[in-house]
Amino acid sequence: MAKKRNCFTNFFIKTRRLIPFLWPTKNFRLQFIILICLLCLVLGRVVNVFLPIWNKRLINNLTVSADVDGILNYNWKLIMIDILIYVGLRFLQGNVGLLSNIQTYLWIDIAQVNVSSTTSAMCFFNYTNLLIVLFHVLQVYYP
Questions:
Q1: Which among 105, 102, 107, 90 has a CA at the least distance from the CA of 40?
Q2: Which of 117, 54, 121 is nearest to 87 (CA)?
Q3: 9-48: per-residue pLDDT in tens?
Q4: How far apart are CA 103 and CA 29, in angstroms?
């Protein structure tokens, strides 16, 4: 009976086969770009975590607090800093944010290299396959 593998084992086996096509082994510039894209991805996740936290902090600072005399007290300096940080986080966040645009722009070179290497590998495979088929067809018709 065949050994059953779980989905993670199959994923790792397939990933190991694809790594030579995905990771540019000879081009250090592209490797550096991939690392920058991964860094942008991680920073995007960190921004997604901190944005609701900063929103809560901003709302808490904007709540009205009255003195003993009934005078409203706002710490305007703290509020302005919180607003600027919140706007900065919103500028970085999401599919239209700066981090996503940087990642998309940098990924263009990597995608082009991957498509060209995969296409050349597929052309070589098809050519080799064609030669094998022609060899066997010629053996049948011209013994």
A1: 102
A2: 54
A3: 888 888 888 777 677 788 899 889 989 999 999 999 999 9
A4: 15
* Residue entry with tokens 């081009």: 27
Question: Which letter does DSSP use for residue 93 in this model?
Answer: S
Residue 43's identity, in one-letter code, is L
* Closest by Cα among 114, 112, 110, 132 to 122: 114
Residues 6+ apart with CB under 8 A from 92: 43, 44, 47, 98, 99
Q: CA-to-CA distance for 76 and 79, rounded, in angstroms? A: 5
CA distance 59 to 70: 21
Tokens, residue 107? 């990924």
Our separate counts of H helices and E strands in the chain read: 4, 2
